[in-house]
Write a structure and sequence with these properties.
single chain, about 230 residues, alpha+beta, 7-stranded antiparallel beta sheet, 3-stranded antiparallel beta sheet, 12 strands, binds fe (iii) ion
Length: about 230
Protein backbone atom coordinates (compact mmCIF):
# COMPACT_ATOMS: atom_id res chain seq x y z
CA UNK A 1 0.00 0.00 0.00
CA UNK A 2 1.30 3.45 -0.87
CA UNK A 3 0.37 5.42 2.25
CA UNK A 4 1.59 8.63 0.63
CA UNK A 5 -1.66 8.71 -1.29
CA UNK A 6 -3.54 9.31 1.97
CA UNK A 7 -1.79 12.68 2.11
CA UNK A 8 -3.56 13.68 -1.09
CA UNK A 9 -6.96 13.65 0.62
CA UNK A 10 -7.79 17.26 1.51
CA UNK A 11 -9.07 18.36 4.91
CA UNK A 12 -9.65 21.45 6.93
CA UNK A 13 -8.26 22.08 10.40
CA UNK A 14 -10.78 22.62 13.17
CA UNK A 15 -11.14 22.96 16.90
CA UNK A 16 -13.84 20.56 18.08
CA UNK A 17 -15.14 21.40 21.54
CA UNK A 18 -17.56 19.94 24.02
CA UNK A 19 -18.25 19.95 27.74
CA UNK A 20 -18.69 17.61 30.66
CA UNK A 21 -20.71 19.18 33.44
CA UNK A 22 -19.02 22.52 34.08
CA UNK A 23 -15.78 21.51 32.40
CA UNK A 24 -15.13 22.57 28.84
CA UNK A 25 -12.63 21.00 26.51
CA UNK A 26 -11.60 21.01 22.87
CA UNK A 27 -9.12 19.45 20.51
CA UNK A 28 -7.65 19.99 17.08
CA UNK A 29 -9.37 17.83 14.47
CA UNK A 30 -9.26 17.40 10.73
CA UNK A 31 -11.93 14.71 10.41
CA UNK A 32 -14.95 17.00 10.20
CA UNK A 33 -17.18 16.51 7.18
CA UNK A 34 -20.57 17.89 6.18
CA UNK A 35 -22.67 14.94 5.07
CA UNK A 36 -26.10 16.46 4.38
CA UNK A 37 -27.41 19.99 3.78
CA UNK A 38 -31.09 19.48 4.60
CA UNK A 39 -31.09 18.88 7.46
CA UNK A 40 -27.53 20.18 8.07
CA UNK A 41 -25.50 17.29 9.44
CA UNK A 42 -21.81 16.75 10.10
CA UNK A 43 -19.75 13.73 10.94
CA UNK A 44 -16.83 14.07 13.37
CA UNK A 45 -14.13 11.44 13.83
CA UNK A 46 -12.75 11.70 17.36
CA UNK A 47 -10.10 9.45 18.94
CA UNK A 48 -11.49 7.40 21.81
CA UNK A 49 -8.46 8.22 23.99
CA UNK A 50 -9.20 11.93 23.86
CA UNK A 51 -11.02 13.76 26.65
CA UNK A 52 -13.12 15.48 23.97
CA UNK A 53 -14.54 12.09 22.99
CA UNK A 54 -15.58 11.47 26.60
CA UNK A 55 -17.16 14.95 26.79
CA UNK A 56 -19.16 14.54 23.54
CA UNK A 57 -20.34 11.09 24.61
CA UNK A 58 -21.55 12.37 27.94
CA UNK A 59 -23.10 15.72 26.93
CA UNK A 60 -24.22 14.80 23.41
CA UNK A 61 -23.28 18.26 22.17
CA UNK A 62 -20.28 19.79 20.37
CA UNK A 63 -19.08 22.86 18.53
CA UNK A 64 -16.65 23.17 15.62
CA UNK A 65 -14.54 26.33 15.26
CA UNK A 66 -13.23 26.75 11.71
CA UNK A 67 -9.62 27.95 11.86
CA UNK A 68 -8.19 30.66 9.61
CA UNK A 69 -4.90 30.39 7.72
CA UNK A 70 -3.39 32.93 10.13
CA UNK A 71 -3.83 30.61 13.10
CA UNK A 72 -0.47 30.32 14.90
CA UNK A 73 1.04 26.85 15.28
CA UNK A 74 0.98 27.36 19.04
CA UNK A 75 -2.83 27.40 19.07
CA UNK A 76 -3.10 24.24 16.99
CA UNK A 77 -0.45 22.64 19.19
CA UNK A 78 -2.18 23.71 22.40
CA UNK A 79 -5.35 21.91 21.31
CA UNK A 80 -3.61 19.03 19.58
CA UNK A 81 -0.76 17.94 21.81
CA UNK A 82 -2.01 18.49 25.33
CA UNK A 83 -4.80 16.72 27.13
CA UNK A 84 -7.75 18.59 28.56
CA UNK A 85 -7.61 16.12 31.43
CA UNK A 86 -4.44 17.89 32.59
CA UNK A 87 -4.63 21.48 31.37
CA UNK A 88 -7.28 24.11 30.74
CA UNK A 89 -6.72 24.58 27.03
CA UNK A 90 -8.81 27.75 26.94
CA UNK A 91 -6.82 29.62 29.62
CA UNK A 92 -5.91 33.05 28.25
CA UNK A 93 -7.80 32.60 24.98
CA UNK A 94 -10.68 34.63 23.62
CA UNK A 95 -13.71 32.38 23.51
CA UNK A 96 -17.36 32.32 24.44
CA UNK A 97 -19.90 29.64 25.16
CA UNK A 98 -22.33 28.83 22.39
CA UNK A 99 -26.05 28.20 22.83
CA UNK A 100 -25.37 24.56 23.69
CA UNK A 101 -22.71 25.44 26.27
CA UNK A 102 -19.73 24.38 24.16
CA UNK A 103 -16.86 26.86 23.84
CA UNK A 104 -16.18 28.54 20.50
CA UNK A 105 -13.06 30.54 19.67
CA UNK A 106 -13.33 34.23 18.83
CA UNK A 107 -9.84 34.63 17.36
CA UNK A 108 -8.22 32.83 14.40
CA UNK A 109 -11.68 31.55 13.61
CA UNK A 110 -13.82 32.22 10.55
CA UNK A 111 -16.95 30.92 12.23
CA UNK A 112 -18.38 28.02 14.11
CA UNK A 113 -21.04 25.34 14.00
CA UNK A 114 -22.86 24.02 17.04
CA UNK A 115 -24.55 20.67 17.07
CA UNK A 116 -26.00 17.73 18.90
CA UNK A 117 -25.15 14.09 18.40
CA UNK A 118 -27.83 12.06 16.62
CA UNK A 119 -25.86 8.89 16.00
CA UNK A 120 -22.60 7.26 17.05
CA UNK A 121 -20.57 4.71 15.14
CA UNK A 122 -17.71 2.71 16.62
CA UNK A 123 -14.78 2.92 14.21
CA UNK A 124 -12.13 1.10 16.21
CA UNK A 125 -9.68 3.69 17.53
CA UNK A 126 -12.17 6.49 16.81
CA UNK A 127 -15.83 7.25 17.32
CA UNK A 128 -17.76 8.73 14.43
CA UNK A 129 -20.32 11.17 15.76
CA UNK A 130 -23.09 12.15 13.39
CA UNK A 131 -24.25 15.59 14.49
CA UNK A 132 -27.24 17.75 13.66
CA UNK A 133 -26.17 21.39 13.33
CA UNK A 134 -28.23 23.57 15.69
CA UNK A 135 -26.52 26.92 15.04
CA UNK A 136 -23.84 28.37 12.79
CA UNK A 137 -22.29 31.83 12.96
CA UNK A 138 -19.63 33.82 11.13
CA UNK A 139 -16.91 35.31 13.37
CA UNK A 140 -14.06 36.74 11.27
CA UNK A 141 -13.24 37.23 7.59
CA UNK A 142 -10.40 35.25 6.05
CA UNK A 143 -9.38 32.04 4.35
CA UNK A 144 -9.85 28.67 6.03
CA UNK A 145 -6.82 26.70 7.18
CA UNK A 146 -6.46 23.49 5.23
CA UNK A 147 -4.53 20.43 6.27
CA UNK A 148 -2.24 20.85 3.24
CA UNK A 149 -1.52 24.49 4.12
CA UNK A 150 -0.83 23.47 7.70
CA UNK A 151 1.73 20.91 6.54
CA UNK A 152 3.34 22.79 3.68
CA UNK A 153 3.39 26.34 5.01
CA UNK A 154 3.09 26.05 8.76
CA UNK A 155 5.14 22.82 8.92
CA UNK A 156 2.85 21.20 11.44
CA UNK A 157 3.19 17.65 12.62
CA UNK A 158 0.37 15.24 13.36
CA UNK A 159 -0.27 13.67 16.76
CA UNK A 160 -0.32 9.88 16.69
CA UNK A 161 -3.97 9.92 17.78
CA UNK A 162 -5.04 11.78 14.63
CA UNK A 163 -6.79 9.55 12.09
CA UNK A 164 -4.48 10.86 9.39
CA UNK A 165 -1.28 10.01 11.22
CA UNK A 166 0.80 7.51 9.29
CA UNK A 167 4.19 5.98 9.92
CA UNK A 168 5.35 7.28 6.57
CA UNK A 169 5.06 10.79 7.91
CA UNK A 170 7.66 10.08 10.57
CA UNK A 171 9.91 8.45 7.99
CA UNK A 172 9.63 11.41 5.69
CA UNK A 173 10.56 13.78 8.50
CA UNK A 174 13.65 11.70 9.30
CA UNK A 175 14.80 11.89 5.72
CA UNK A 176 14.44 15.66 5.66
CA UNK A 177 16.44 16.30 8.80
CA UNK A 178 19.91 17.81 8.77
CA UNK A 179 22.35 18.40 11.63
CA UNK A 180 21.14 21.95 12.09
CA UNK A 181 17.59 21.00 12.86
CA UNK A 182 16.28 20.13 16.31
CA UNK A 183 13.32 17.91 17.18
CA UNK A 184 10.91 18.37 20.07
CA UNK A 185 10.95 15.07 21.98
CA UNK A 186 7.41 15.73 23.24
CA UNK A 187 5.46 16.39 20.05
CA UNK A 188 7.87 15.84 17.17
CA UNK A 189 7.94 19.48 16.04
CA UNK A 190 11.13 20.22 14.13
CA UNK A 191 12.90 23.52 14.62
CA UNK A 192 14.46 24.52 11.31
CA UNK A 193 16.94 27.42 11.67
CA UNK A 194 16.36 28.40 8.04
CA UNK A 195 12.72 29.12 8.84
CA UNK A 196 13.08 30.34 12.41
CA UNK A 197 9.84 30.64 14.37
CA UNK A 198 8.13 33.80 13.09
CA UNK A 199 5.04 33.25 15.27
CA UNK A 200 7.30 33.69 18.33
CA UNK A 201 9.35 36.52 16.84
CA UNK A 202 12.36 34.33 15.97
CA UNK A 203 13.81 35.47 12.64
CA UNK A 204 14.69 33.01 9.87
CA UNK A 205 18.37 32.07 10.09
CA UNK A 206 18.47 31.82 13.90
CA UNK A 207 20.45 28.74 15.03
CA UNK A 208 18.80 26.61 17.70
CA UNK A 209 21.60 27.47 20.15
CA UNK A 210 20.79 31.17 19.82
CA UNK A 211 17.10 30.84 20.65
CA UNK A 212 16.19 32.69 23.88
CA UNK A 213 16.27 30.49 27.00
CA UNK A 214 12.55 31.04 27.52
CA UNK A 215 11.68 29.98 23.97
CA UNK A 216 9.27 27.04 23.97
CA UNK A 217 8.10 24.59 21.35
CA UNK A 218 5.44 26.42 19.29
CA UNK A 219 3.45 23.20 19.03
CA UNK A 220 3.33 21.87 22.57
CA UNK A 221 5.09 24.34 24.88
CA UNK A 222 8.06 22.07 25.67
CA UNK A 223 11.22 23.90 26.82
CA UNK A 224 14.52 24.03 24.89
CA UNK A 225 16.09 21.23 26.92
CA UNK A 226 13.39 18.89 25.65
CA UNK A 227 14.75 19.23 22.13
CA UNK A 228 17.42 17.04 20.65
CA UNK A 229 19.39 17.31 17.41
CA UNK A 230 17.54 15.80 14.50
CA UNK A 231 19.27 12.76 13.06
FE1 LIG B 1 6.70 20.17 21.07
Amino acid sequence: MDTEIFRKISYGVYIVSSRKGDRINAQTANAVVQITAAPPQLVLGICKDNFTNECIKESGVFAVSILSQETPLSLIGRFGFKSGREVDKFAGLSYRLGNNGCPVLQEHTLGYLEGKVVKELDAGTHTLFVGMVTDAQRVNEGEPMTYAYYHQVKRGTTPMSAPTYIEAEKKEQREEKTMEKYTCTVCGYIYDPEQGDPDSGVAPGTPFEELPDDWVCPMCGATKDQFEPAE
